[in-house]
Amino acid sequence: MTEGRSLHLTVTPHLANVSVRLYLKRGDKPRRIDEFDRNTTLPLPDDADLFTLSLGPTETMAADRWTWFIPGSDVDPKDPYRGKNFTLNYTLQIFSTQCLYFNEESEDFESDGCQPGPLSSAALSHCRCDHLTAFGSGFTFFIAPNKLNILETLRNLNPAENPVVIIAVSVLFGIYILVVIWARRKDRQDSKKIGATILRGDQGRFHDHFYQITVLTGSRSESSTSARVFLTLMGEGGTSGPHELEDRDRTILKEGGVDTFILPTSRHLGSLYAVHIWHDNTGPCPSWFLDKIILQDLSDGKKYSFLCQRWLAVEEGDGRVDCLLSSATDEQLSTLRHVFGSQTSKAFKDGHLWASVLGRPAYSPFTRVQRVSCCLSLLLCTMVTNIAFFRRENDFGPPPTIDILGFKVQIPISWAQFMIAVQSCLIIFPINLAIVEIFRHVASPPEKKAKDQCGSSASSITSDSDVVSLEEIELQKLDKAWDFYRQPYSDSKMTEEKKKGCILPWWCVFIAWFLVFASCVVSAFFTILYGQAYGRKKAEEWLFVFFTSFFADLFVLQPVKVVLLAVGLTLVLRKPHDDAENQTPTLDYEEVCAYLSSIKATPARECREEPPDSTKLAEMRVRRFVEISMRKALYEFAFYFLFVLVLVVIANGPRDTGMFHMTQHLRRTVDDGGDHSFTNATACKAV
């Protein structure tokens, strides 16, 4: 053995509470017990778990003959083996260790000033150094996962004896199928929310200018409204008349919704400075939480933001159902409150993979079905890495203790735990990030070109008659508005947006689905194999530990991370990032055709709706509070009725039918009416 190395001999009895005496002789084989060079009792007195004997690092040992001897007469058993005949099996292991430090001058590892300590074992190296130079001993950069013999595990596969992991994986796939069915239904509902609705213009006037109105409803509970909503635009060049925000085909103004409308006006309103919006407080749930309104002048592309962030409801706040919103300045849009709310809302609705399954924006190309599939892939990949490294850190030593200002501080994480975390991230992160990014940035599949029915109908109108009517001019104006959506401002802007969005070819979605399928199948396969190899007890232990940590991370740590990330982005950027503002609405060609046809078929009618006055508001407020009180009373009645019903079932359900006869029998036995009856007892001695 080379200089600087220490030779260690470990004797591990297979029974607990047993001490043995070890004799060692170097060189010739001894004939008597007193010819051995060394003898010691294991475990050592300082540590009941230390069965390792250090033979010293001071000399250079050759391949000499060593004789070891453990006499049965020196075995010292404790309860329950004391005074009994028993067989003691033990394991003897010989290993050497060496402590090295990196010498920066020679750029090599050396052993000067470092000696192995007596606490060294096969899994842990104990080093004593007289300097603070970085050193290493038994350093392992890559932590291998637990061993798995695939062929042997498949041969010994027995789901009847160890069905835990198989049932868990099967339940996950079953839940996935049910959630996908729900997600597909929600995706179809979201597809109906996408698009821009063309509002009716002013009666009997030419419509030369068009404004895009984007209304963002809040995400609070019961933020949507069933009432009819109206608004009026106010600009430096004039005021538009009141217009109702309505759509007969789409579901609009719902909780967390982003609705887009196209408003034709008879003249250019100039720079917009205010919007007056209100509703008539009708329907079963008229209360509405309006987040903000974004207006865009389609003639020059200029945008205006109007912040509301309040309830328009008779039972909330000041009880009013109308408000006059002023155009927000850059300072108002950059306030911490607005930016933090925008960042947090976007993070939970679209950024957070799990939460976005419920709050996914309708305009996002990343569908709910795709999000649910990504969640399944992420969960199964996490499961396979977790079970592959389960309890692997126990094979390495605990983290060292460092001295800080005279206080001994235990490092909370060991090197093995750190490396296992890094390796797990390297396994899980790349493939799942690739899947999510492909789904987010893949282009829509090419659609079949629709026939230009609107253009042909408009041309036929003008050719049938030499007289040009107001409706015909209206058709031509709106046809120009449709050209705005068919062709963006310029080809350069389209190229810039394409680079910004990183659009991938539409067929890349098949690559993403293949990665989802492959990652799920491979992860589930190896998870089941590891579960079978571990045995039922260890598999149950892993399953409990995994899901406990997973749900704690999902419902506690990840929301905290999202909020902290939103705080960081708010402090650094101080600029709201709202995809709804940059989202170009989808105006279906058939909708434009239908609307253009309806202009000639039905003449426009003037909207004379006004906000309710104070008298009507007072009546609505009283009626609304009565409805809320009645609803609350019904909820309380139903709750207490169920509570009493459950209480009656619990109190009377588990009673045995023989309890009455048992009680009667005990009464007749103890209190039989004789001299020894309890009724005749006057003291404890009498009893």
Automatic annotation (TrEMBL):
Pfam families per the UniProt record, alphabetical: GPS, PLAT
Residue ranges of domain PLAT in the record: 209-326
Molecular function via GO: calcium channel activity
Transmembrane feature ranges: 164-183, 372-390, 415-439, 503-530, 542-573, 633-653
Keyword Transmembrane helix among record annotations: yes
One GO cellular component term: membrane
Record key words, sorted: Membrane, Transmembrane, Transmembrane helix
InterPro entries given in the database record: GPS, PLAT/LH2_dom, PLAT/LH2_dom_sf, Polycystin
PROSITE patterns membership: PLAT (PS50095)
Biological processes annotated in GO: detection of mechanical stimulus
Record localization: Membrane
Protein name: Polycystic kidney disease protein 1-like 2
